[in-house]
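Deliverable D4.2, example record:
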Amino acid sequence: MKLIEQKNHAQRDQDQGTEQPAAAATAVAGLRIDDIEHRRLRLQDRDYAAIHAITTANRPTPFLYRQIPPKWRYGACNSAQLCRTQAQVGWDFNPVILAGCAALATIYFAAYYGTGAHREKQWHFWPRAITFLFADVVLLLALISPLDPLGETRLFSAHMVQHLLLLEVVAPLWVLGLPVPVAQRLLRLPALSRIEKRLRDPRIAWPIGFFTLALWHIPYFYDLALSADGTHALEHLCFLLSAFVFWWPVVSPLASHRMPTVTSVLYLFSRMTANLMLGVVVIALPVGAYAAYAHRVLPLPFGLTPYTDKELGGYLMWLPTLLIDVAAVPLFLVLLLKPAVLPSQTLPEVTNPAAPAAFHG
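Output generated by the structure prediction step:
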């Protein structure tokens, strides 16, 4: 009976376009997905296709997933190249990251004081400065804290938390923290003004924000991002830039460059719906879809299994977005209904020399 089931599973995987090494298939033919999740195993390169065979044998493979070529399912690189299970999960005070975050703060204050706006003692600068510095600190913690190596080597869900910090915290706070005089001065440059005018169109900003996220979560590109520090940094840079473009028409410091309140609400809720669909796709993927985690040593941290880790990561792709969008609606009603730059009230004695006599009797 077991031999018949094994042949059926092999035929099923052959129909789906997968190639299984005979040795790996024989070694794991009698195991269920629960056994792989709970046993302490270090997987070899040849076991990756076998993991996929067990996964598809124990739960139906989504139809759309079967249409993806195997090259795009299993990642860009050999799983051994992606394996970093020996790396310590701890703080990494990378001097490049530390210098980059310090440079961001320096450029921020230099740009503001370079406009000369500080001479007017504008009261609204420091709230924006604190907002920007908070985003800078969150960015620093997301990149040097144990969250980064944990997401690279052990937990898919930890990597999703890191992405959430970049997309939903750092990028929108950067936009909110941008001083109005700096934004006005930058947009006086003709080339930058033309680019900004095009990118703030929601028909362009929305696809840039969502499809950048979706692209990097295709297994091929996801594994490619984790194959080297350079590609991982490129992924994070793409997230930050695309999220900045996405949030700009929503919370731009310039009131004339924001969308109307109702449009902003629809803009965010449509993004939440798209993220929900993306999260459902991730949850439906087989456990072995992301080759970057094929060499994990079990058990995983926090009592998670490979399946629950992937499922939690799928929920993290849309549930926090929903909470942020719901919480943002009343803030938009307050923020978007008042201008970004308050008109300065000119005193009569400054513009009219005869005014002092009239005022002081």
